[in-house]
Fold each of these.
Amino acid sequence: ARTRRYTFNVTMATVTRLCVTKSVPTVNGRFPGPRLVVREGDRLVVQVHNNINSNVTFHWHGVRQLRSGWADGPSYITQCPIRPGQSYAYDFRIVGQRGTLWWHAHFSWLRATLYGPLVILPPRGVPYPFPKPHRQVTLMLGEWFNADPEAVIKQALQTGGAPNVSDAYTFNGLPGPTYNCSSAAGDDTFRLRVRPGRTYLLRLVNAALNDELFFAVANHTLTVVQADASYVKPFAAATLVISPGQTMDVLLTASASAAAAAPSSAFAIAVAPYTNTVGTFDNTTAVAAVEYGPHQSAAAPLRSLPLPALPRYNDTAAVANFSAMFRSLASARYPARVPRTVDRRFFFTVGLGADPCRSRVNGTCQGPNGTRFAASMNNVSFAMPRTASLLQAHYQRRYSGVLAANFPAVPPTRFDYTGAPPNNTFVTHGTRVVPLSFNTTVEVVLQDTSVLGAESHPLHLHGYDFFVVGTGFGNYDATNDTARYNLVDPVQRNTVSVPTAGWVAIRFVADNPGVWIMHCHLDVHLTWGLAMAWLVNDGPLPNQKLPPPPSDIPRVRLAIKMFPY
Ligand code: C2O
């Protein structure tokens, strides 16, 4: 194992997309940010210097951070933000994980431009459990806003309404030929050059702020081999569904017949949203190209490539069918250590809600029925602490004024979650966490609610991978649904979508001491409070305890103002 050192200089840089030139936060002047490549077992040290006029933190999405919670990165959860002019070194090991993960800013909506891939190669000499690809390509799907994303969310919070949607989806930051407006034709298109008969490993990441995405390549079938840096039983799919936060490694074989069939020898890669969202969404399709042989440099032919067939934007059945395909490898070499018994069971409702307008809000309230949008779990809308990080409070055992260790295990009232909502839809607010003793086996059933319309929510758990042991539509039924759990080869992930008007059950063992946020990876929902945190206590042995914070951890600062309310 080696130590890999990287420096992240966070600076503003000029970027042009969709004919709009603007200054955006970047890492080392690059958008998207640099690709980090490590091997399983390596130590990673990323020295961050904040040179922009905003607070920032970085999160290594999916990295387990075993006893290195100080490096996890969500602002106010495991650290106070790195203030302008400050530095902080994220120092952690990659233990027992391999595949594709990614990193992104975890403060406000800065991850709109501050993100990049984190590729974890197997230990030297260890093969993949699938045919060795000819080449590996990381492909990050993103979302581009012509406006400043910080201004977009700030305005939404002031009016109480939904934020403006993005202007395009992107492939490694490129929106595709439809939007090409430069004279250097084709510059805005991601192109994957392939040779017939060869197989390519696409390391896909959905880095979009607010949209789950369909992904397909015209005339090509994809083979899924990995999800969230865990191997799965390989399966073929014409269309993928990737939720924000999720990663998916897929094999694409360039076929000779495909090349012969197309005169241009190019095929469209298309990305479009999957949503049942309340209100508007970015309903654009982004296009990239798979190119055989000598490529066409002009954008014009790319514009006329036939698009692969994609499901309708709200095709929840197609999404459910795709999700059902995922099984962990569960082989002798890669066993699935699924917890068979459970120490503590939780039932969390997940969904949108509303708040009364407050007097200090400017103008009228543009949320539902003159209220302000909010989101919650078990009707608690998560309030970010302002004076210390939760991990700091936990480490110093000083909860008062920072957090309350009483997040409810079940919702305050039971109702028909996927039917007509109850009358009073107002949420409560608080920084409430669930304390867990070390090594507790946890089951959480996440139930979507239709209070403001049913919608799928990509839930991400920090600090752990979990097993997805069950899922279904309608209201979760403890007796019948539990009996149908898959405890043999359930997929292991760090982000799972709670299906629209449905539920999903996950299990994990709380063997990593620290404070771990679990939240919806749609940034607008996170901003509205769709989050909670687990506080996992130390175990009795020295190697089961959270070490002290590094000396350069950003200092506590009183009265930090994050959002204007
Ligand atoms: Cu990728 Cu808390 O996030």
Note: The longest strand covers residues 3-17.
Amino acid sequence: IKRIGILTGGGDAPGLNAVIRAAVKVAVRNYGLSVIGFEDGFAGLVENRSRRLTLKDVVGILPRGGTILGTTNRENPFHYPVRENGEIVYKDLSQQAIDNLNSLGVQALIIIGGDGSLKIAKEIWERYNFPVIGVPKTIDNDIAATDQTFGFDTAVATATEAIDKLHTTAEAHHRVMVLEVMGRYTGWIALHAGVAGGADVILIPEIPFTIDKVCEKILERQREGKKFSIVVVAEGAKPVGGEVVVKKIVKESFESIRLGGIGNVVGEQIERITGIETRVTVLGHLQRGGSPTPFDRLLATRFGAAAVNFLMEGRFGEMVSLRTPDITSVPLAEAVGTMRRVPLGCDLIRAARQMGISFGD
Ligand code: F6P
């Protein structure tokens, strides 16, 4: 292998640039490779938009959030939006993507992404036998076959800081503060930040809740003389047997504006049932922004370096993975399609319950 490509797909996560930096440094300095960065995720691959990444291009990017490779986006070469007669139709343009890789002389590709991007990586490997390696990224920490994804630690740090701040204002007004954090399918951010921030109630998708149980906990605290409570809710948390519609305003010129849903629903119900003044904060994309924590910088750096090393060893169709304390690789087929949920019997849930944190069940 003389030339490799790299792209960032899906939503962003703090640490993307740290992966790119490590991969470029290891590729150029140790193997004499040239590196091509595709712009705007899979769009750059399909539309042949790329640029050479040299050592100079990665100077100073370690602490930077976002990605130097344009935008990340959720586009898929196997189902690619094309405008035809004023309408958007979806086409399989994967062969075009492979042709672009071949014409650029790119012999292997590093794909940094979440479940969606890793599925595309698997498809590229299986259908075209094109050498790929995946790097697991998402603040949600929900990818199977790795102990952790990069971006998660930074999101937890941001959410924990928010809980700390909410604590002081909650105490000053004797209020209930509800904080909605990200986590569409899993409650990793809510659980970790909730425990780290000393929340009283943590609601996660893995444990359906009953609002009466949540209120019971808050009223019990009142009786104990604790005049405020902190409730952390993952955006994907659901009441027992219920579905909560996440409100979205969809307009012609805007894709969507996410307003937050479950946090507001829970906050409104708490105030109505307990009679205690309640305020809701939706933390939203603050969790995806900013500089990665030292842990995420390290994990991203180790992933980026390993991705290049593994490609040079011929470990194709795999994903780099943290199996503490080592970085190893696993077949992409093992990593995608299964969500890594919070195990209900894990020690953190147990300790949290033992310390009096309610999960609303
Ligand atoms: O998967 C990461 C994530 O941040 C989720 O926690 C969240 O539900 C989603 O992405 C938000 O996506 P978007 O930025 O497209 O609104």
Note: The chain is about 35% helix and 20% strand.
